[in-house]
Write a structure and sequence with these properties.
Number of strands: 8
Structural class: alpha+beta
Shape: elongated
Helix content: 25-40%
Oligomer: single chain
Number of helices: 5
Order of helices and strands: HHHHEEEEEEEEH
Length: about 200
């Protein structure tokens, strides 16, 4: 049912080509913007809730006269972990996971001096993202209508090859917890509709 709804918007849609698009374009753009503090890019992809959280974090850094200047060194394991219909509106979503080697730095706005983090501290982080598609913006040249309803960065640790398996396990658990929590929250609370029609996100 999930893939069928995506195919209604784009008859050529298939998981193989979308995974390739995620790996080569979408995920690198989003993660690079995330560690660089690029709110303009993330606003194109994030729905209201995750964007507001991120924007509040960046404002807190600006209030301290700091700015993010991180780097993504490598991205691995990009895959569609599951396809679900989120209750109660049966919103079709794809849960995407990946892991990244990254450097997180924060610099002083006035001098550019590093205030937090180091160039040599490479972290291995896991990410989980929940994608849906806005039927009103399928023709958007940048996003093709794809929107991120939830964005989760898992716990990070200094990069070693030994910890790769542990991050895969953590990512799987995070995704399961997210899906169960989403279903529970939607059943317990009546929120304003996420869609104006069909299944368009905010």
């Amino acid at each position: 049912r999930v893939m069928g709804q995506f195919k209604m918007l784009d008859p050529n849609f298939n998981t193989e080509s979308f995974t390739k698009h995620l790996r080569e374009y979408i995920i690198p753009e989003i993660l690079e913007a995330y560690v660089k503090g690029d709110e303009a890019v993330l606003k194109q992809w994030f729905s209201e809730a995750p964007y507001n959280v991120y924007a509040a974090q960046q404002k807190a850094f600006r209030d301290q006269e700091l700015f993010a200047d991180g780097r993504i060194l490598d991205i691995r394991g990009v895959e569609i972990v599951s396809a679900k219909l989120l209750a109660p509106q049966d919103i079709p979503v794809l849960v995407v996971g990946c892991r990244a080697q990254e450097i997180h730095l924060y610099r002083k706005a006035k001098t550019g001096e590093i205030a937090a983090g180091t160039e040599s501290n490479i972290l291995l982080s896991s990410y989980a993202m929940v994608f849906t598609r806005d039927p009103e913006n399928v023709d958007d040249k940048e996003t093709e209508g794809w929107r991120i309803l939830e964005f989760v960065r898992g716990g990070s640790r200094q990069f070693t090859w030994v910890c790769t398996y542990a991050f895969f396990l953590f990512l799987s658990c995070s995704i399961v917890i997210y899906l169960l929590t989403s279903v529970y929250k939607q059943k317990e609370k009546k929120k304003r509709p996420l869609f104006t029609h069909a299944y368009a996100p905010n």
